[in-house]
Amino acid sequence: MTQVQTEVSLYDQDYLLWIEDIVNKLRNRDIDGLDFDNLIEEIDSLGRSDKRELESRLAELLEHILKRKYVNMPDCYRGWVESINKQRIRIRKLLKDSPSLKPYFSAVFDEVYADTLKIVSISYPQCEFPDQWPFSCDIDAMLNVDFWE
């Protein structure tokens, strides 16, 4: 029986070394030496990563706005407002780096709100949260308005 050895790519052997190799090849304009399949996969995943980060930060922002507005726990307000401010800063930076994410923000808002609502409703069953986001979901409003005031 003959064993077939399959060649393991640098990408599969050592990811960091693969990145360094790709960067060097790009700098030297060595188009023929590029690992296009894995390079395309990695670039594509960068876009998905930014989208996931935006969704995660939006969920955290919505969660803490809901808590601050509807959960009567004054001792927690400061921490929730701090989290709201941190998420707003990070979302602003993300949108500044990738302005094309702005339409995605609007596209996923209702889904992220619905998921967030499930979480806070279970954590705070004594509170009534609105089934639909009752305020403006415009990016500018979400990043600047203190809905609880």
Structure description:
It is built from six helices and no strands. It has 149 residues and is an all-alpha fold. Helix 3 packs antiparallel against helix 4 (74-97) and helix 3 (36-70) crosses helix 5. It is elongated. The model has no long low-confidence stretch (mean pLDDT 93).
According to CATH, the fold-level topology is: Malate Synthase G, Chain: A, Domain 4
Shape type: elongated
**Architecture per CATH nomenclature, i.e. the level-2 architecture:** Up-down Bundle
Give the low-pLDDT segments.
none
In helices, the fraction of residues equals 55-70%
Assigned CATH class: Mainly Alpha
Give me the CATH superfamily: Uncharcterised protein PF01724
The number of distinct helices, counting runs of at least 4 residues, comes to 6
Cα(first) to Cα(last) distance is 76 Å
Distinctive features:
6 helices, 149 residues, mainly alpha, Malate Synthase G, Chain: A, Domain 4, 70% helix, elongated
Summary, kept brief:
The radius of gyration is 22 Å and the shape is elongated. It has 149 residues and is mainly alpha-helical.
